[in-house]
Amino acid sequence: MAEGRDVMNAQDYGITIRRVIEEGEACFEARVRELPDVVEYADTHDEAYELAIDTIETTEAALKESGRALPQPLPPADDFSGRITLRVPRTLHRALVSLAEDEGVSLNQQIVAVLSYYVGVQTPTRTVFAEWHAEPAIARPGGKAATACPQIIHDIGAGDSSKADKWMAPAV
């Protein structure tokens, strides 16, 4: 919590809710972006969200007792334009262009794919396309959520059905 700030709002934190299978049963997993050790499980999306809120508040109280501060909420993605300018060595530029050509995508799409993979925003799993709800969603105040799985869009939306099988669930 920042100096001079009296009230912490747990809903300002980036809470990720996703449907998972734990010990053979479907449930909802809640994680807090600013508190990577926090993982909560519940039977419903709303219960998982409430558990995450409670954990944020409990963690804040425990840290306050020990004289430490809770990390500040990260700014929402809306606060960023999505545009960056960077300089790269010529050899890296050449390598990225070559990779993009091999994949049949623009240089921009290739750089986004590489950065997304590295940062971990994109975590391809062997899921069926219809299970978009199983992909991570950032819960925001007001009930808004954001989801993305750019690799599926790239592989399938671009008409490259040769890669479709990697996104399909294995046959049971």
TrEMBL record:
InterPro entries: Arc_rbn_hlx_hlx (IPR013321), Ribbon_hlx_hlx (IPR010985), TTHA1013/TTHA0281-like (IPR035069), Uncharacterised_HicB (IPR008651). It comes from the Bacteria. Pfam families: HicB. This is Toxin-antitoxin system HicB family antitoxin. SUPFAM superfamilies: Ribbon-helix-helix, TTHA1013/TTHA0281-like. One of its GO terms (biological process) is regulation of DNA-templated transcription. It comes from Thioalkalivibrio halophilus.
